[in-house]
């Protein structure tokens, strides 16, 4: 028990989990829990049609979904750290666009940037950053990292409401976006930029004698691009989850 505890305490992968936890808190807090608050504020302060603001919020989430789907290609081209910084910049620009929009069409532009930033800091990003560091402990590591999204909702929902009431939408967006950018930039440079290969580490902190003991399911095979949508198990699972979410929202 002492040996296991020491390895978990010192293995660098758990620092990555902590960094990703914070990244998820900002990503969900600003990109997922923020838009419903923005919708209400814009409706009250601008008097714009609720249907148009709602459509802009929908566009934000659609852009986020497209970004998440293409995130692996972005990571291969830019690397995790640069992609994370780019996502934070897009999210900050989009949030500032929402806060300072003076015409309805500007919401659509802001939604493109905020949606791209949300997609680059959402579940796909958490999985891509954490997974290289773990195999056996991957479920536990991802569970901890994903909890950052829940904490983001607990913190940012009242934070947005209180800060907008105190500072106004524009100033609140500027302050929160600046804090997010500084934090994510620091995490990307200090932690996310490193890989197990660069540090000479094996997944889960194992030594070289145990690194070859992992067993991959014999039937597992990569399904890139369109091949994934030809997989019956993936399609039926996705359809079931989508129907469940649709039923819940209705």
What's the CATH class label?
Mainly Alpha
Shape: globular
Question: How many domains make up the 3D coordinates?
Answer: 1
Radius of gyration based on Cα positions: 20 Å
By CATH, the superfamily comes out as MFS general substrate transporter like domains
CATH architecture classification: Up-down Bundle
> What fraction, in percent, of the residue positions are helical?
over 70%
- What's the count of strands? 0
Give an account of the 3D structure:
The chain has 250 residues and is mostly helical. It is 76% helix and 0% strand. The chain is built from twelve helices and no strands. Helix 2 runs antiparallel to helix 8 (123-130), helix 5 (71-78) crosses helix 6 (80-100) and helix 8 (123-130) packs across helix 9. The longest helix has 30 residues, at 138-167. The chain is globular, with a radius of gyration of 20 Å.
């Amino acid at each position: 028990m002492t040996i296991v505890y020491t390895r978990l305490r010192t293995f660098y992968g758990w620092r990555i989990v902590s960094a990703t936890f914070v990244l998820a808190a900002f990503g969900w807090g600003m990109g997922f829990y923020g838009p419903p608050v923005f919708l209400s504020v814009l409706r009250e302060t601008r008097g714009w049609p609720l249907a148009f603001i709602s459509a802009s919020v929908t566009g934000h989430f659609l852009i986020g979904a497209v970004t998440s789907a293409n995130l692996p290609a972005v990571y291969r081209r830019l690397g995790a750290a640069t992609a994370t910084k780019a996502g934070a910049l897009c999210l900050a620009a989009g949030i500032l666009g929402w806060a300072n929009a003076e015409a309805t069409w500007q919401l659509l532009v802001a939604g493109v940037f905020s949606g791209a930033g949300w997609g680059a800091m959402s579940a796909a990003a958490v999985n891509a950053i954490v997974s290289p560091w773990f195999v056996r402990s991957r479920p536990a590591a991802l569970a901890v990292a994903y909890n950052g999204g829940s904490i983001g909702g607990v913190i940012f929902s009242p934070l947005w409401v209180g800060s907008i009431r105190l500072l106004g939408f524009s100033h609140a967006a500027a302050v929160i976006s600046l804090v997010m950018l500084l934090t994510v930039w620091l995490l990307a440079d200090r932690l996310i930029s490193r890989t197990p290969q660069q540090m000479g580490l094996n997944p889960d902190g194992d030594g070289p004698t145990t690194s070859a003991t992992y067993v991959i399911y014999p039937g597992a095979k990569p399904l890139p691009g369109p091949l994934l949508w030809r997989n019956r198990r993936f399609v039926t699972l996705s359809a079931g989850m989508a129907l469940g979410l649709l039923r819940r929202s209705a």
